[in-house]
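Honest question from a wet-lab person: if I give you the sequences of every part of a complex, can you actually get the arrangement of the whole thing, not just the pieces? Trying it with mine:
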Amino acid sequence: MEHNKLPLTPLPRIFLISSGEEDPDHSIRLTRQLSLLPRSISCMVQIREKQLDSRQLLTLALEVRNIELPEGTLLLVNERVDIALAASLDGVHLPENACSPDKLRPVAPKLIFGCSVHSQKSLRLAEESEADYLLFGPVFDTPSKRRYGAPQGLVRLGELCRTTTLPVFALGGITPENASRCMGEGAYGIAALSIFQDPSQFVETIEQFYHIVFP
Amino acid sequence: MIPFLPFLCVITDKALCPVSLAEKALEGGAAMIQLRHKSASGGQLFSWAIEIVNCCKRYNALCIINDRVDIAMASKADGVHLGQQDMPATVARKIMGKNTIIGVSTSSIEEAILAEKDGADYIGFGHIYPTLSKEKGHSPLGPEALQEVSKLISLPIVAIGGISLDNAASLISCGASGVAVISAVSRAVDPSRAAQMLVSAIKKRNS
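Yes, you can. This is the full assembly:
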C-alpha cells in the first residue's frame, strides 16, 4: 500500500524511551528530561507507560505535547494510535505483538510507525507492513531484559542492518562507550531508557551520544 | 443505529475465545457484541475484532470495542465502549467522527448526565445487581436508580451487572433499552440457548 513516506527531514538519531514509572498524576521524570534537552539536539521520544490507563496516558501525552521541544523532535506513544491522534503526537511505536502498521496507517496516514524487531521473522513482517523505522535489541546486557535470556549482540545487529534498508535504532545497554560500535554495524541511531534517568547526567549523556551518532 | 427494540448486549469473557462466544451469542439473537479483553495484545485484539465485525455483519448486529478506540477504528467496528478510566467520549468523538457509536459506562446519575452531555450514543448503567464478573468499587445500584436515570436522560440505557433470566425483563420495564451480560451467557452450558432465552424474555416484555 502506498503511503506518505517518511518526513522530508530525516528522523532524529537519538531515541529516548520513557521510564515506565510515570506517576499517574504528575509526569515528573519525562517532563523534566524533555525540559533539559539541549535546544540543538532533536530526539525521538517514546512515551511507554504501560501501567497507565487510557485516560491517564492521554493526560500525559497532552502534557508532553505542550512542552517546547527542540525543532525536529518527534513524539511517539507506545502502540496507541488513538492517543497519538488525540494528543497530536507524531507517531506510534509498535511492540512485536501489536497491530501491524499496514492495519493502522489507513486510520492515521500522517503518523510515523515504528516496530520493535527481535528476529528475522519480525523484521520481514515489519518490512511487509511498511514500518518507518525499526528498534532492535537488546544489543548489550541490560538488567531489565535479563529474564528474556542473553542479549542479541553486535553481530546480529550488523546482520539486521545489512538486511534492511529501514533505519535501525539499537537498544539495550547502550552507553556513550559502546554506541559507536552500534553505529559501526550500520545502526541509524541509538535508543535508551535507563541511562537517561539520572537528571544530573542527562544533558552530558545526550551530548555525548549526539557526537557519536553524527560523527 | 442502536436497536429500537429491547436488545441483548453480550460482553466477551476472558475465559472463552471471544470469537466463538460472539458467534454463539449472535446465534442466540444478541444485537450487540462488546469485545472486552484488558490483557490481550493489540495484535490479538485486532484479529478478534476483524472476525467479530464480520460475524456481526452477518447477523445485522453491532460490534463494539471496549476502550481501544484505535482497534475499533482499524477494524471498522461499529463503535467503542468507554469506561470512566478510558478516553473521554468528547475526545473519542473528535477522532472517530459522527458515524460511530460511542457508549460510556456509568455508575451514577452524575456520570450518566455527563455522558449524555459529552455526546455518547448510549450509556451502560450499573452494576444493577451484585456481580462477580468485575471488581466493583461500590454497592449495586438497584432497579430504582435505573428508573430514575431513565427519566433524566434521553439516551438509550443498557443495564448491566448481575442480570439473569429472572430480572432482565423487569429492567426493560424500568426504562432500559437493553441489557448487557457477561457470565449469564459465557458461563452457560449452552451460551447460544442462554442468549436466546434472555432475548425472548426482554422482547416478550415489550409486546
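Two things worth pointing out. The mean pLDDT of chain B is 95. Chain B is about 40% helix and 20% strand.
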